[in-house]
Design a protein that fits this description.
Layout: H1 2-13, H2 15-31, H3 36-43, H4 50-58, H5 66-71, H6 83-93, E1 109-119, E2 122-134, E3 140-148, H7 178-181, H8 198-207, E4 211-223, E5 229-236, E6 244-252, H9 255-264
Antiparallel strand pairs: 1-2, 1-4, 2-3, 4-5, 5-6
Helix pairs in contact: 1-2
């Protein structure tokens, strides 16, 4: 607190330094990627981006190469980036003969929203996976396509030997009560390919006031619509020009690896894990 008071007093009596400080704050704000929409605009090198307006006020002759715009969207504080992969990725999407752009209404990008919640009166967490849905009237909205929480899933099999004996019919299925009493091994009474109906459980618990979402803790955006790649975007809150919503992870992947990622990381149902070889 004393340091802050000293700085304010210093800038008050030294207008030159105060102006420099204010200019740097203004520059940081201009360069900051403030919304995911702005991330998409910069990725596509749109003319109306705020950063271009800011730079052109200072230099009307400034040129903006798409490659440089995309490089500026990477989290520069991460030292684990593989330069060759970044260059390959940027070269692919900025290829002048066959460029790749992002669209807010693309089908295969998702918001992973980690939330603080209350489940049956106890503090808990739940992760919701959302995507954009376009309506027939031209409007759009975010919708929940999956949810991730331990209380939404059936327990993992404890004893694979249990189940309804193949001769149960001979006793008129007199042991059918196991379906409701053997809770730890309930998966043994279901098909091997059964997928948890997490959204159905989510809606049931919410409608019966067992589940209450309190607040959003963290958001990660997953972009899966570019051939051969997956990348994530997170918010980095800091007083630098490289701040805001930035590219936090870049993964070169095959189609099958992308399907696995969608199923295991985002918990998407099988019908949403089918990817084509082109998204242009």
């Amino acid at each position: 607190m004393k340091v802050l008071v000293w700085l304010l007093a210093f800038f008050a009596f030294h207008p030159v330094f105060s102006q420099i400080f204010q200019d740097e704050v203004t520059a940081n704000f201009a360069y900051q990627v403030k919304q995911i929409d702005e991330f998409i605009e910069r990725f596509n090198n749109k003319e109306n981006t705020l950063i271009k307006q800011y730079v052109k006020k200072k230099d009307t002759t400034a040129q903006f190469k798409r490659e440089q715009m995309i490089k500026g969207l990477f989290n520069a504080s991460d030292t684990s980036w593989k330069k060759a992969e970044i260059l390959q990725f940027i070269g692919q999407v900025s290829n002048t003969e066959d460029p790749v752009y992002l669209n807010f209404f693309d089908a295969n990008w998702y918001a992973e929203v980690n939330c603080a919640a209350s489940y049956k009166g106890k503090p808990s967490t739940i992760t919701l996976i959302l995507k954009i849905q376009r309506e027939k009237n031209g409007m759009s909205k975010w919708i929940v396509v999956s949810a991730i929480a331990d209380f939404l899933r059936l327990p993992i099999r404890k004893d694979t030997t249990t189940g309804l004996n193949p001769l149960s019919h001979a006793t008129d299925f007199m042991n059918i009560d196991l379906l409701t009493t053997d809770k730890k091994n309930i998966r043994n009474y279901l098909p091997n390919h059964y997928q948890d109906e997490v959204l159905s459980v989510f809606l049931y618990e919410a409608q019966h006031n067992q589940l209450v979402i309190k607040q959003v803790n963290k958001i990660t955006y997953h972009f899966l619509q570019i051939d051969g790649w997956i990348f994530t975007v997170n918010r980095f809150s800091r007083q630098t020009r490289n701040s805001g919503w930035l590219l936090s992870k870049l993964l070169p992947v095959t189609v099958s690896a992308k399907q696995k990622y969608a199923h295991e990381k985002l918990n998407l149902p099988d019908e949403m894990c089918q990817f084509q070889t082109s998204y242009r």
